[in-house]
TrEMBL record:
Domain CusB-like beta-barrel, first and last residues per copy: 209-279
GO molecular function: efflux transmembrane transporter activity
InterPro entries cross-referenced by the UniProt entry: Beta-barrel_RND_2, MdtA-like_BSH, RND_pump_MFP
Coiled-coil intervals, chain numbering: 93-120
Keyword Coiled coil annotated: yes
This protein's GO CC annotations: efflux pump complex
Pfam families (UniProt xref): Beta-barrel_RND_2, BSH_RND
Protein name, UniProt field: Efflux RND transporter periplasmic adaptor subunit
Similarity annotation: Belongs to the membrane fusion protein (MFP) (TC 8.A.1) family.
UniProt keywords, alphabetically: Coiled coil
Domain Multidrug resistance protein MdtA-like barrel-sandwich hybrid: 59-195
Length: 357
């Protein structure tokens, strides 16, 4: 090989061996996450129950007239709100009115007879004192007056019964509430309590009726605080445990508990399914985070991803309670610290992230 060719070959080989790799276009983008701020909370030991909303005992009644007859007026429909004393329905009053008029006439007759007997007895007493009438006649007139007085009392009682009978032809709301059922249509005959004409239920307060196990019922006491949530309604309602049944439901072996909640605006509806959380004991201060901040650990525990200085660090926590509104936890966190609530599931510890605003 000639020296010149050897030099060219060497230069070519040197050029190939010294060629540089093109520079990278740039570092990969950081994972994007959203964060939320840790808030203060109270840790409590509680019990979650579900059931149906209903009127308290004695605050749901079925009304029927106490006299038979044709339902001449029906003034309400299902869903109507009524006030205590409001007339809801009326049975035909023809017979009751006739009986009242007859009783009034009988009382007038008895009153006149009593006045006449009193006057006759008074005259006989005067004559007897002057020796004109016999003492026996005076005694007979006194007996006649007593009989007239008794007849007048019976007539007065009959009039009172007739007035009550006329009052029984109307159905009045016993308390403020809502009409929840109509059993008879206007114009139909009514006799007895089956079927009832109108059902009225009170709506403030309402009670949540729920069944719990006997073990759970042992820790529930009247007066314990409770919060109520209902699908379709924002926020929670505050209430308390009203009663714990002393008996066990024979078929299921569970115990009925009743929780009472104020309902002045009527937003809570009778028969609606609702959930409640009963607070049975306070466990001290805790922290509140959104449920989406909770991350499962390989050891079966739970952690949150704390954000600081552009990086995330997993911090193990203990979940005290959790629902759709938030999670109450205890752990090495501080109020006001940001934690990842979106995009944190697959991030390794100490990963750099970009926070979306």
């Amino acid at each position: 090989m000639s020296p010149r060719f050897a030099l060219l070959a060497c230069l070519f080989a040197s050029g190939v061996g010294c060629q540089r790799t093109p520079p990278q276009e740039g570092a990969p983008p950081l994972p994007r996450v959203r964060v939320a701020i840790v808030a203060p909370a109270q840790a409590v030991r509680g019990l979650r129950v579900a059931g149906l909303l209903s009127a308290p005992p004695g605050r749901e009644v079925r009304l029927s007239p106490r006299v038979p007859g044709r339902l001449s007026q029906l003034r309400v429909a299902e869903g109507d709100r009524v006030r205590a004393g409001e007339v809801l329905a009326q049975v035909d009053t023809v017979n009751a009115t006739a009986e009242l008029q007859q009783a009034e006439a009988s009382l007038r007759e008895a009153t006149s007879a009593l006045e006449a007997a009193k006057e006759k007895r008074a005259r006989t007493d005067v004559l007897a004192e002057h020796g004109v009438a016999a003492r026996q006649d005076a005694e007979q007139d006194r007996s006649a007056e007593a009989a007239a007085r008794a007849a007048e009392a019976r007539a007065r009682s009959a009039l009172e019964l007739a007035r009550r009978g006329l009052g029984r032809t109307s159905l009045q709301a016993p308390f403020d509430g809502v009409v929840t059922a109509i059993g008879v249509r206007q114009g139909e005959m009514v006799e007895g309590a089956n079927p009832p004409v109108v059902q009225v239920s009170a709506t403030d307060p309402l009670e949540l009726r729920a069944f719990v196990t006997q073990q759970e019922a042992a820790a529930v006491q009247p007066g314990q605080r409770a919060t109520l949530t209902v699908d379709g309604l924002d926020g929670a309602r505050e209430g308390e445990v009203a009663a714990v049944s002393p008996s066990v439901e024979p078929q299921s072996g569970n115990v009925l508990i009743r929780l009472r909640f104020a309902n002045p605006g009527g937003e809570l509806r009778l028969g609606a399914t609702a959930r409640a959380h009963i607070v049975m004991a306070s466990l001290g201060s805790a922290l509140a985070v959104p449920p989406s901040a909770l991350l499962p650990q390989e050891d079966g525990g739970v952690a949150v991803a704390r954000f600081a200085d552009g990086r995330v660090h997993r911090v193990p926590v203990q979940v005290i309670s959790e629902d759709e509104g938030g999670a109450v936890v205890q752990g090495p966190l501080a109020v006001g610290e940001p934690v990842v609530v979106e995009g944190g599931y697959s991030l390794p510890d100490d990963a750099g992230v970009e926070v979306l605003r």
